[in-house]
Hints:
By secondary structure, the protein is mainly alpha-helical.
Amino acid sequence: MNFLLRILISALAALITQYILPGVELDSFITALLLAFVLAILNLLVKPVLLILTLPITVFTLGLFIFVINAIIILIASELIDGFRVDGFWWALLFSLVQTLISSFLYSLGPGAKNDEEF
């Protein structure tokens, strides 16, 4: 159930992000759901391999190279999904950053969020 909620929130965040960034296009909510699922699979399978292969440069840049890896994963997803288009590396990098911020905000509003009113 938690996985499905994360996919739905990621899809909603992707839709919101496309309205913020003109270099990103999504055709429909179904495409956004497919994007969220494909990104989850790529983050599970491809990202660890890329992290290991680029470990020296990631350490040298104090972890900032992970943003580049995220952009590469977004570009791979844009090649795999027909209704999802990114205009280039920089738009993919911005998409990754903005979607992460929006997803984090939406997760904080969700049913598992901490209640600040408790003492």
